[in-house]
Write a structure and sequence with these properties.
Length: 136
């Protein structure tokens, strides 16, 4: 069973592109997601993973601490023990992401940095629909 999540939040630290033992690039970062309002407001931290070209693209897009992103990916609960205390981490393997613009200062200054994910496949092509056709 696969659990898919879409979330918006802020990156908690500047990104560091890393390399696996096999030489593949990857990123691991936390995304702070605000949940609730007023006195019941809390922050949930998602440990996000991004691999290969998508990781390279995020670095080129100058994502950094405080960047406001929307992510979509597969959610996994990871349990581990440290000092006799069991901890559960929410891990997300990202398959798409995009900047969320609140103001012009939220986006990178470079024109070469892509601000929106263009790797998400379209579900259907609107130009092929005839009047009365359903897109599914």
């Amino acid at each position: 069973m696969m659990l898919t999540i879409t979330a918006t939040g802020r990156v908690t630290a500047d990104l560091e592109l890393q390399q696996s033992q096999k030489g593949n690039n990857y990123l691991r970062f936390n995304l702070a997601v605000n949940k609730g309002f007023g006195e019941s407001a809390t922050t949930v931290y998602l440990q996000c993973w991004l691999f290969g070209e998508q990781a390279d693209r995020m670095v080129r897009a100058k994502v950094k601490k405080g960047s406001y992103l929307e992510i979509a990916g597969d959610l996994d609960l990871s349990k581990y023990k440290r000092d006799d205390k069991e901890t559960v981490t929410l891990k997300v393997s990202i398959y798409s992401w995009a900047y969320i613009q609140q103001s012009k200062s939220d986006l990178p200054k470079s024109d070469t940095a892509p601000a929106v994910n263009t790797n998400t496949p379209e579900l259907y092509d609107e130009t092929e629909l005839q009047d009365g056709d359903l897109p599914f």
